[in-house]
Structures are given as C-alpha cells and as structure tokens.
Design a protein that fits this description.
Length: 215
C-alpha cells in the first residue's frame, strides 16, 4: 500500500515536471521575444529601392542592411508639413547620433528640383549631419511607385496644393532585417506608421527604435 502511494506520488511529480518542461519550451522563447522588442508587429518587407543621395552616391536598401532606419517622403520647397517632419527627424538623428546601426532615408517627391546638390544644401541647412542619413532623389515615377505601392504612403502632384505636391506626414520604421515594424492599437490591429508631425508619434517611434536596436 505504501509502495503504491509512493509510486503514485512519484508519477505526480514526473507529470508535473513534464508540464513545467513543456511550458518552459514554449513560454520562455515568447518571454525572450517580448524583451527583445518582438511585440512590435511585422508588416512585411520594405520595398527595395536604388536612388542617388546628397553626395551623388548610389544608395539602395542594401545600404541599410543590419540597420534600424526611418523613412520619410518630403520635398525641399515644401511650405507646410515638411519643415516639421525634418525638425522631428533631426531630433531622432540627435537621439541616436553615433550609433552605426541607426539610419534615416528622406526621399524627395520633387526630384526634378531636388537634385543631389539641392539636397546637400538642404541637409546642411537643417543640421542633418549623420553619415547614415541619406537624402534621396531619382526618377519621379519610380519614387512615386516606392511611396504609393511600396510603402503605401501617399505622394502625388497637385497644382492646387500648397507647394504643388501632396504627401503623407508619416514615418515608416524598418528593422535590421528590412521588415516594416509597428505598434498595435487597443483592438490588436496594427498601426502601420508613426505620425511624424505629432510629439506623441515621434516619442513612440523613438521608443520603438530602441527596442529594435536591441534585437
């Protein structure tokens, strides 16, 4: 009788140990993922691109491989939202200045005006001095495809718009593996991009850049 009870007790311990082991196998990696920043939703791969930067160098998404980077669409003569976006982007540059694993891509939607020379002068004017911040230009149709179909961030010409162009004021966040990452709302739906005009949005992307840099 005592032997039976001893065997049953041992079996209970073995069963409990097995449950704990299984829990550890499945739960610990998820906990680690959370700590690494994997609570950020993965939207899918960022579009590929090949453009010229302010130093007239060919820059592609491959130049950002292994880096966390932020993408914006703007133009240098923009009289409305671009100065705010650029100012907030300079803030992000300064927050992560000197970190070789962080970069920025500012893509002009008015490439006919925004030549490498114009972009270089603009970068100097706003204080964009990080070697990993590229102001990019190229074929207009190609750039609009990257914006509208690649990132799904609106960019277009409109003669009635202030400055002659319309575009999104949102920032895209890309991880070290070239994937677009973002937060979720209270209903667990992804919020694809960050508001580059709002202090809250800029603070959120700053926090999430830190998370991705730790991955």
């Amino acid at each position: 009788m005592l032997i039976d009870k001893f065997n049953m007790k041992n079996k209970s311990y073995i069963g409990l140990s097995f449950i704990i082991l299984i829990f550890g196998i499945y739960a610990i990696p998820k906990i680690v993922d959370k700590l690494k920043g994997n609570d950020l939703f993965e939207m899918g791969p960022a579009p590929s691109f090949v453009l010229k930067d302010q130093n007239n160098k060919t820059i592609s998404n491959a130049n950002y491989a292994g880096k966390v980077y932020v993408v914006e669409f703007f133009f240098t003569t923009c009289p409305s939202i671009c100065p705010i976006m650029n100012k907030n982007m300079v803030g992000l540059q300064n927050d992560f200045f000197g970190n070789p694993n962080f970069g920025i891509a500012s893509i002009s939607i008015n490439p006919e005006n925004d030549t490498p020379e114009v972009l270089k002068a603009h970068a100097e004017k706003i204080g964009a001095n990080s070697p990993n911040w590229h102001f990019l230009t190229g074929d207009k149709k190609y750039i609009y495809q990257i914006a509208n179909k690649g990132f799904n961030l609106y960019a277009g010409e409109n003669s009635k718009a202030n400055g002659g162009f319309e575009h999104s004021g949102l920032f895209a966040l890309i991880d070290k593996h070239g994937k677009i990452r973002c937060r979720k709302d209270a209903q667990d739906n992804p919020i694809p991009y960050y508001d580059g005009l709002d202090k809250k949005g800029v603070q959120q992307i700053k926090e999430d850049i830190n998370k991705l840099l730790e991955e």
